[in-house]
Amino acid sequence: MELQLENQPSGYRVGSFVDNAVVIGEVRYAASLIVTPEQVVPDWPPQHLDQLTVDDLGMILALGPELILVGTGNALQFPDSVILKAVMRAGIGIDFMDSRAVCRTYNILAAEGRRVAAGVIINRSTSVR
Fold it and tell me: In what order do the strands lie in the sheet with 67-71?
């Protein structure tokens, strides 16, 4: 699925999400990552939604977003309520979607100049390397 031209002057954009991998610029990420308009944080720990911890979301919160998107892999899933409560206490909006939807939504919000951060969970056992 091609999304849009990446590497725009306004920051990092997701070029595609294909075969359970994210392409940003010329780099293909086959492991979970965090992307903001200012930076890409590779090797984000969770490989499945059930491995997502409050500390993993803390890594995203430390980047100062106004909104967090979490891609849950190839299918939409929801985390334990403890995870949601931790982010809500910080006063930050959070939304869970399948990873393709997160990549599309991230690009739209980043293009609007929003301080968005996307954590994309990539299940390594199903990744094509």
Answer: 40-41, 33-35, 116-120, 67-71, 93-97
Q: Note whether residue 2 is domain-resident.
A: no
Q: Is the pLDDT of residue 98 over 90?
A: yes
With left for phi above 0 and alpha for psi between -120 and 50, is residue 51 left, alpha or beta?
A: alpha
Does 11 fall in a domain?
no
Q: Please, which residues bridge with residue 6 across strands? A: none
* Residue-range definition of the domain harbouring residue 52: 16-126
Distance CA(64)–CA(74), nearest Å, equals 27
99: CATH: 3.40.1230.10
Total number of domains in the chain: 1
pTM of the model: 0.87
Please report where in the chains the tokens 């390397």 appear, as a residue. Answer: 129
Query: Helix, strand, coil % (nearest 5) of the chain?
Result: 30, 25, 45
pLDDT at res. 1: 53
Beta strands 40-41 and 27-29 are unpaired
Tell me what the mean pLDDT of segment 100-128 comes to: 89
